[in-house]
NYN domain-containing protein
Amino acid sequence: MENEKRFALLIDADNVSPKYIGVITKEAQAYGNITIRRIYGDWTEDAKASWKKVLLEYSLSPMQQYGYTTGKNSSDSAMIIDAMDILYTSPVDGFILVSSDSDFTKLAMRLRESGKSIIGMGESKTPVPFRKACEQFKILDVLYRAEDKAKGKAKAQVQEPEKPEETSDVTNLRVIKEAIFSMLDEHSDEDGWVHLSALGNMLQKLYSDFDCRNYGYSRLTLMMKSFPELETRKVSTKKDGIKVLKVRKKNR
């Protein structure tokens, strides 16, 4: 696609488990074309053996960074320097920074100041400052569990209703729900309706870690339908007749 955005995927191998590589690449590809794929670490260490097994399979370029100081993650500086080089020399629209380390907070802020889209990914232990510095932040262990659960259901062919499984590692569901009601009050049309896609975009901008899968829902539609105070409906657009989903409060 001509207008597809280009992203640089930079992974801190010292602070993210290789078991998440499938989730990382799946989420990354949803944003656009991943033109740069680099992973940073000391590849002479035995601890990196699991990462080495997936480098070729996922087309990751290993960037060697020796640990000159005991107990210090030397990959941070290499990844930060590379990110700034890419910013000034490569035609990318954004960066996907994968780490659970708060040391990348300032980098994310600096790249956003340059007008780049910044997607963060990390485990639930990732400090809040780094999460907030990104436009969107994906919590890998939460998504990993959700994907495992979905695979298990498909394998067993069991059709169970989805239930919220909130984790303390994300913005509280009560806070999300209150924000939704507030947005409906502020942005609805004369009949109280708001496009679901617009609502989702507003939530994402307000809470960088918002993802309906964090709360046990595979789609935003199912999340909205689970709230008894809301109703949804499909309508056709006047321009091309495409069906879109709208949501509003009941008993207006």
Notes: The radius of gyration is 20 Å. The chain has nine helices and nine strands. The first strand starts at residue 6 and ends at 12.
